[in-house]
Amino acid sequence: MPKVSLAKWIRFSIAALVYILWVLWVGNLWLLPGAIVIFDIYITKKVPWDFWKKTKEGQKPKAWIEWVDALLFALVAVYFINLFLFQNYKIPTSSLEKSLLVGDHLFVSKVSYGPRVPHTPLSFPLLQNTVPILNTKSYIEWPQWDYKRLKGFGEVENNDIVVFNFPTGDTVPVKYVNPDIYITARRIGLAKASNNPSVLKGFENVSQWELNNHLREIGKEEIYLNPEEYGEVVYRPVDRRDNYVKRCVGIAGDTFEIRHNQIYINGEKAENPEGLQHWYNIITDGTKFNQKFLDRMEISNEDARMMGMGPYYRLPLTEEKAEQLKTYSFIRQMAMDEEVADSSAAPMVWPYSADYVWSRDNFGPLYIPKTGDVIQLDLKNLSLYDRIITAYEGNTLKVKDGSIYINGEQTSEYTIKMNYYFMLGDNRHQSADSRYWGFVPEDHVVGRPILVWLSLNKDKSLFGGKIRFNRFFKWVVNE
Q1: What is the pLDDT of residue 85?
Q2: Is 30 a domain residue?
Q3: Which of 282, 312, 336 is the C-terminal boundary of a domain?
Q4: How far apart are CA 145 and CA 206, in angstroms?
Q5: Cβ-based burial of 231 (10 A; exposed 0-12, middle 13-18, buried ≥19)
Q6: Domain coverage including residue 22
Q7: Cystine design at 138: which of 127, 205, 346, 418 (Cβ 3.0–4.6 Å)?
Q8: Hey, what long-range contacts does 384-391 have (CB within 8 A, 24 or more apart)?
């Protein structure tokens, strides 16, 4: 072995230490022989790892070779940083206003809750599921690894703002992604049943779970038969489903409830986040709300889309802004909007069952399952736990002659394998969240936003306030 300088030994020692610590973190000792490769790269140089950059003695590699070398190194570095440390996320909707704003760019920490070993490891860095312009998958479906989460700094807690993969984004019509296929298919099924009641023949006296399943099958058939309207229907693995960001309002083991717009956890009133917004129904003396007024009340164009034409308005406001607006002389009446649970109306929130008379603002009580819980099943609560049993934990589920069958065996109970969470937006009346699609499994949790590094206001021009300088490097707090 040729004489090796002290500097090379130091570089090798640092690289080997980092690699060994990473192997121990991942928990796969089969990767330890990789240290031999690092030793050869830095010390023995038996294998010409940089053969493709070799030139005639004394000549510098061509510029394009150096560019390709730098690009490949950058892509590999970005891949591992995104996988194990942090990734960028841009807030696309107003569901978390005023806690996080549309156009906020976030650093999302993977180590806060521990990074996941990738389900689909072969993917293009920085792309979630689709290659722009080409509209092709940005990942290869094989191999697919089982769920495993590495050690992190903590666990998801109540009031944490969390980035996660959209749970019901597993099956996606690419031209119609929101609402999800399950909500859309049920709506289509209901419309067809309304126009042609014969499609429900034989389902007059079945459980709500069986009825909803039948309605969704009717709707899915319509979606699959109309690709020109809905697009190709694709399946996405867990880590390739769209990223969402919401606030965790219930962790595994909690009993969650909303009473008159107020959240209760385990029967106790929960503390509201500072940026919490609700719709307020407002009547003025005829005074019209203009853009200047909306700017003063810090209401985005997206939030103002459904405000009305006057003198009757509906606006999303924080408690502070609502108290401010009440002092204006042109306000005649003003009250927080509330959707009352109504047993005579069609269910409008998850689990979309007449057995659960819930609404957007009066929801639950609902127990959030944790690992090891044994759930007693019946035809009523099956609507709550069916996706846990099938989509999230990989079992088959059937109902036959009033009995429940899991993996072909008749049963009346199920043991939960993962922790689950309930996620809501702070813009409570303008957020698609767990009230509409249910639990978030622990294997869907991506990470925790820690910093706003850039914020752009899409409602403003470049020189008219587009860049929100006051939000640069703003820490994301959970209160």
Answers
A1: 92
A2: yes
A3: 336
A4: 39
A5: middle
A6: 1-49
A7: 127
A8: 384/351, 384/356, 384/438, 385/414, 386/209, 387/167, 387/168, 387/438, 387/439, 388/414, 388/416, 388/420, 388/439, 388/441, 389/414, 391/167, 391/170
Using alpha carbons, select from 291, 240, 237, 242 the residue that is nearest to residue 93: 242
- Report the candidate in 346, 339, 368, 353 with the shortest Cα–Cα distance to residue 434: 368
Residues composing the chain: 479
Residue 57 has pLDDT above 70, yes or no: no
Summarised one tens digit per residue, pLDDT across range 63-76 is 777 788 788 888 88
Q: Give CA–CA dist 266/270, Å, rounded.
A: 9
Domain boundary among 336, 371, 396: 336
Those residues whose C-beta lies under 8 Å from the C-beta of residue 128, and which sit 6 or more positions away, are 138, 240, 242, 243
Give Cβ neighbours of residue 427 (< 8 Å, ≥ 6 apart).
94, 95, 96, 97, 98, 277, 303, 316
Q: Collect all residues with Cβ–Cβ distance below 8 Å to 132 and sequence separation of at least 6.
A: none
Q: Render pLDDT for 301-321 as a digit per residue (tens, 0 to 9).
A: 888 888 988 899 999 999 999
Q: Tell me whether residue 360 is in a domain.
A: no
Whether residue 94 is predicted with pLDDT greater than 80 in this model: the reply is yes
Looking at residue 376, what is its pLDDT?
98
309 phi/psi in degrees, rounded to 5: -110, -5
Q: Is 60 exceeded by the pLDDT of residue 479? A: no
**CATH number of 274's domain:** 3.30.70
Tell me what the mean pLDDT of segment 337-364 comes to: 95
Exposed, middle or buried, 451 (CB in 10 Å: 0-12/13-18/19+)?
A: middle
For residue 244, report the phi and psi dihedrals to the nearest 5 degrees: -120, 155
| pTM, entire model | 0.91
Nearest by Cα to 39 from 31, 30, 47: 47
The tokens describing 222, both together, are 């319509």
290 domain-assigned: yes
Burial of 253 (0-12, 13-18, 19+ CB in 10 A): middle
Q: How confident is the model at residue 49 (pLDDT cuts 50, 70, 90)?
A: confident
Q: Has residue 13 been placed in a domain?
A: yes
The number of distinct structural domains making up the chain is: 2
